[in-house]
Fold:
Amino acid sequence: MAAGADSGTVRAAGCVLWRRSPHGAQHGPGPGIEIALVHRPKYDDWSHPKGKLKRGEDPLRGALREVHEETGYDCEPGPRLPTVRYAVSGRPKEVLYWAAEATEGHFVPNHEVDRLIWLAPAAARLRVTHEHDRVLVDALLDSLRMA
Structure:
């Protein structure tokens, strides 16, 4: 049985989706990259693409599926990032994340995600709604520096 499945924990997975900046290196420290953030009208928040895993689904496959469904982009997965845990409507939720470089695709608004923006890391840190998403921006930058 999958971890958390018997405890009522909602299992999800996602990626911190990034691309090399078409504008070159940004001002300040860090690589010249942009991070994709999605806006979910149901929650009116800005976050990294993620979603619930299907029963028995491999978490990495689920993360890549969710990125494609929410953003329209395919991506190349990289290192694991920190797991995020929080409560939603009184239920524990666990989200596994990976760094992932966008390879190809284009965004089309859908019922779950109505907007996608690409931002420099510093701007992405400011735009995300939840603190745990800021931590993921920092973890992505650390993973890219190590590569």
